[in-house]
Amino acid sequence: FAKLTRPLRLLLIAPPGGGKGTISSKLLKQHPEITSLSSGDLLRQEIKNQTSIGSQATSLMQSGKLLPDQLVSDLVIKELKTQNLLQGEKSWLLDGFPRTLAQAQILDSDLYKESSQINMVIELKVPHSVILDRIENRWVHIPSGRIYNLTYSPPKVPGLDDVTGEPLSKRPDDNVEVFKQRLEQYEKTVGPLREFYGKQGVLNYIAGDSSDIIFPKVQKLIEECFGPDGKY
Ligand code: ATP
After folding, report:
1. Could you tell me the pTM of the whole model?
2. Is there a contact between 75 and 98 (Cβ–Cβ < 8 Å)?
3. Quick one: which H or E segment has residue 55?
4. Sign of the C-alpha dihedral, residues 222, 224, 226, 232?
5. CA-based nearest residue to 219, from 24, 11, 19
6. pLDDT tens for residues 83-95?
7. Do 60 and 44 form a contact (C-beta atoms < 8 A)?
8. CB distance 72 to ligand 1 below 6 Å
């Protein structure tokens, strides 16, 4: 795979269970120069650390509802700054944020001040039947956000994280009822996001039933645009 020759500032959009996490971790393995930030992971860490954001997040997340736009935006933007990702020519990837038009507008005005903008958005199109199955089989290692699937990518030792040996958990929102709510929420909010990034000329769609099909397409698209022979 080709090295990126220009900073990539990527937003991945997908339905719940649509594989954003899996695609990001595959991409990071091939391109260690990219840093990924997941709003869901940041929020689960706040819950684990019992912070005041965590206490606001717990019940909303458990019922599959979105958190207030400003709260999530502040959390992610603060992390982008803490990790120094807005300085210099850094490549990064956002997973799960922005998820509403209001969040996209908040981020846009903040990045504008820093003279860096999202320069690629990829929306993953995955059939509902596939994502439901994934949700039921998914286990996570909360501190790192590493994801396992009991069918496709089980941990080496059942119930334990491959890297740290710590226990895996089932996300409280990974059940059929809450999933329905998350999916409805997604369908409602994704339209205006598409429109926003479509107007900026950075939106791309990639379809497929599994990350094995989707990932090579993501990789090809990114390298075509940001690799040595990049279009931009
Ligand atoms: P996946 O299943 O691929 O992880 P998801 O969208 O269901 O996708 P997360 O991104 O981890 O899962 O989000 C889990 C929950 O965290 C959401 O249902 C919502 O309650 C909260 N959340 C995460 N990101 C945001 C955001 N940008 N705005 C508002 N709420 C968010």
Report:
1. 0.88
2. no
3. helix 52-62
4. negative
5. 24
6. 999 988 899 999 9
7. no
8. yes
Q: Is the CB of 160 under 6 A from ligand 1?
A: no
What is the distance, to the nearest Å, from the Cα of residue 220 to the centroid of all Cα atoms in its chain?
A: 19
Residue 172 is which amino acid? Answer: P
3-class state of residue 113 by DSSP: helix
For tokens 């996300």, name the residue: 171
Structure tokens at 23: 């695609």
Model confidence pLDDT, tens digit, residues 164-217: 999 999 988 888 888 888 899 999 999 999 999 999 999 999 999 888 899 999
CA angle 187, 60, 182 (to 5 degrees): 20
Mutate to test the pocket of ligand 1, among 178, 182, 185, 187 (most ligand atoms within 8 A of CB): 182
Predicted complex ipTM: 0.93
